[in-house]
Amino acid sequence: MEPVEWLGNRLKMIDQSKLPGEELYLTTEDYREVARCIKELRVRGAPTIGVAAAYGITLGAQGIRTENRDEFLTKLSQVVETMASTRPTAVNLFKTIERMEAIAKKGGSIREIKERLLSEAIRIHTEERDSTRQLGEFGAALIPNRATILTHCNAGPLATCGYGTALGVIHFAAEQGKGVSVFADETRPLLQGARLTVWELMRDNIPVTLITDSMAGCLMHQNRIDCVVVGADRIAANGDVANKIGTYMVAVLAKENHVPFYVAAPTSTIDLSLSSGAEIPIEERDPLEVTCLQGVSLAPEGVRVFNPAFDVTSCYYVSAIITEKGVAYPPYRSSLREL
Ligand code: MRU
Asked: Taking Cα atoms as reference points, which of 142, 153, 167, 132 lies closest to residue 323?
């Protein structure tokens, strides 16, 4: 499954908002269209957002028609601003932007800068793809035989351009013959668990059972979950983790019920510049995502709505952080820095 594919001079993206009902592909040469797809969650998941943004900046650069280097760089910074304004929480987006800006500032002719930007975008894509294999193998070692694993949101191939982070761990555990099975939280409000995680696991022939978010605690209390594995959008230097709204609730319940709570994320998702999760910007989204489900209104018109897309789980609840460079254990301030 390739959520994002570079076609030489255009970007092809699968519209994740339409899955699993429809496998719709969007192809564009316009960076603004890439930004719109990220904003509308047609392209989503922290690593995939970073990869799509890299190609988006490449497309933006390719569309700038001037021979004047200063003018080129001014126009490129407008492209970068458009990308940066799409989604605030996933740090992969901002790491991509930093890398692309550094490439642009290296000098050379406009043609050379455009070529280098494309090479960097391809490098970011390859790195994300490759890191999920390594991460998955490290993570699979933590999964017991015949484990039942709970996951929240979607951290699979669609979200990562590779095997997935949480789903990468599950994929490699299954490949090693561990006979694992999964409970997938539906993940309100946009149902990434029900729509995407279940779809990906079924395609991978991994046994999966769909539950509503409110059922996870009861399953843990009944000793029916051996471990939780989730992805992340940003991990602070102390190991606090921002991930899809509802993750915190799962983590607290896991601790209460003595269930290991693992976070699987590439090192591109770790933000050592932030001391703790309190500094992570949390995206708030359109109230319609809460009041409507696929166009059907569920709540009285005019109701006040709070719709944060992510929450922060304190490192206190995190048993280990699985990356492509190895597994970090508490205290995370030193173990993450070492990785
Ligand atoms: O709003 P989304 O769907 O982009 O949120 C995605 C998540 O929260 C994922 O768990 C996270 O990005 C990890 S993806 C490997």
From this structure: 132
